[in-house]
Amino acid sequence: MTQIDPDAESQPLSHYVGASLDRYFDSLNGCAPPRDLYQMVLEQVEKPLLERVLDYSEGNQSRAAQMLGINRGTLRKKLRSYALDR
């Protein structure tokens, strides 16, 4: 189980996404700018999101899809794309 910083609860998720992107850009150290950044960020966020929601819903894909606000078929397609289909 992940330890949560007590101050973390006051920060929205966007705060951490922004901080991660700042670190990513800093780590480039003048290298060529990234390509397909939008897709890269979506993939980096989507997989753990799906994993956590599935864990929370105890593997119930119908409940997970409802929590995510997507169709169950769409969820299954996404799970296959990340090799998360159980």
Automatic annotation (TrEMBL):
<comment type="similarity">
    <text>Belongs to the transcriptional regulatory Fis family.</text>
</comment>
<feature type="domain" description="DNA binding HTH">
    <location>
        <begin position="42"/>
        <end position="82"/>
    </location>
</feature>
<protein>
    <recommendedName>
        <fullName>Putative Fis-like DNA-binding protein</fullName>
    </recommendedName>
</protein>
<dbReference type="InterPro" id="IPR005412">
    <property type="entry name" value="Fis_DNA-bd"/>
</dbReference>
<dbReference type="Pfam" id="PF02954">
    <property type="entry name" value="HTH_8"/>
</dbReference>
<dbReference type="InterPro" id="IPR009057">
    <property type="entry name" value="Homeodomain-like_sf"/>
</dbReference>
<dbReference type="InterPro" id="IPR002197">
    <property type="entry name" value="HTH_Fis"/>
</dbReference>
<keyword id="KW-0238">DNA-binding</keyword>
<dbReference type="InterPro" id="IPR050207">
    <property type="entry name" value="Trans_regulatory_Fis"/>
</dbReference>
